[in-house]
Here is the input.
Amino acid sequence: MSPAPRKLLFGTAGVPLASADASTIQGIEHIFQIGLDCQEIEFVNGVKMGLDTARKVALKAAAREVRLSVHAPYFINLNSEDRGKRLQSQERILASARIAHACGAGSVVFHAGFYGKSSPGQAFGEIKRELSQVVSILRTERVPVTLRIETMGKRSQFGSLEEVLILCREIDGLQPCLDFSHLHAREGRFNSYDEFSRVLSKVEKKLGRAALRNAHIHISGSHYSQAGELKHLDLKDSDFRYDDWIEALGDFDVRGLVICESPNREEDALMLKKLYRGRKEKTEDPASSPVQD
Here is the structure.
């Protein structure tokens, strides 16, 4: 596995829109050319990449120093009433992890499932049991990728901040994918400097400082209702206070990957990177600090 980044890296969910073609390899090249740092490979409709291609992806990413992660298929429900669907969900996570390792990706992000007819407590227990089996299999196979359970934007989905953090604390090796737009859409809050800071403080308290030093973050604008997220928006077309968000990430010295899921993914990723670098340069400039007598 690659060492934890020494700063925040910014990139796109999937191949950038302006890439010469839709291949992951060309996407990595475009990420490099426009000055971004990372790319999440989207297996949302199924793991359709073979090992030969994965090895070529790994070589390209290493040559361009572009960090990679993987998003597992959407068709995962570890709380399904159908045992067969649970096993299929496990296999989709396992397949994603195996190809992620071949690609040189450090993390696999996944959606855990839905509450369905279960209470939140019952869903927690079922999902914990299924994920524990997946983690055990990957450990036996010596697949050194980090599984990251995503905070979810719909109230019908398992994945509140509290659920994700407790599950990560109870399953060794599991880590969160902090989707801040999902948190905002799900709760109708988490949209100010103080609220972002409380989220980061809670992550640190539950999982330790290391969770903020090697974070995996999703961000976009969001259109939402009382039921939660409806669709992604460009950040400037949303109510998300990304300036405050950048300030909070900087003040907590959060490091890792920021994956932009906006419709104009690379434009928003570049905008956020510019804001982050501007803030970092300002705070590191001695001339910006108060004069000491």
